[in-house]
Amino acid sequence: TPRMPFDEDDFYDFDVIHKWVDGHGDVIRRAVAGELVVVDDFLPSDAARHLRQLVRDESDWSRDRIDEDIDNDDVAHEFEASTGPATSLFTRVAMALASRYGSSDGCDALYPSFTASRYSRAPGADTVGDRIDIHDDFALSPVELANGECEWNARRFAGVLYLTDDVWTEADGGCFVDHNASRDDANDTGTDNAPMRRIVPAFNRFVAFAVPRRHAVEPVRTTSKKRHAIFGWWYAAATDKEINAHVVDDDMKVYYSDDDDDDDDDIDDDIDEDN
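Request: output the structure for the sequence above.
Response:
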């Protein structure tokens, strides 16, 4: 059967989206099992190119820059972020993935929240490209209910779709670096210098994993290309244990308590630190 021409309206048809992604298996369920899921040619090429063009055409970018702050446990990162048409369209894909996972008994409902990102490096021998230091993505986010009460949601899964140039190599930088396999988290052993997995942000490559997972984004090295992507998380209702492990103040900020023996990154709001 000849393939039908791509149309942006395809993103509004869940039957079409499921045809695009169901062949990759239940991506989120694979992540539940602890797999770092890496899928090439995630979307039909025309659909992925359409998203890439929308991201490239986006004009409303904000630069997100934080230096490392040990006292507040802020991880150093710098990149640009935007929520535009491409983000809205990809969120439909994220909803389709969540529906496959949520169709199984006993699975929490998942709520996607995605953002476009742009990583670059300014010309000059001494410049450092955009990047994110090692972090694990865990965060709580308050959701105000219709009755005015607050419900806490936690990041359960993370995903990123790379919308880079057709040719992007490891030498260009900006690789996703998985540190999770280099540690024995149960015994808090291992070092961040141990062997790790490095994933090149190739065009139309999708990466997903369960949160928390320790990872980083290497500095972009190239000055001639920009590393575009759409990244984000699927949230679900936070457990009592997750909520009780944090101190929540009147400004709806979240901190790890002093006796929390986890080494997760403290998040003081829903700052988009990822991928």
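The longest strand covers residues 150-162.
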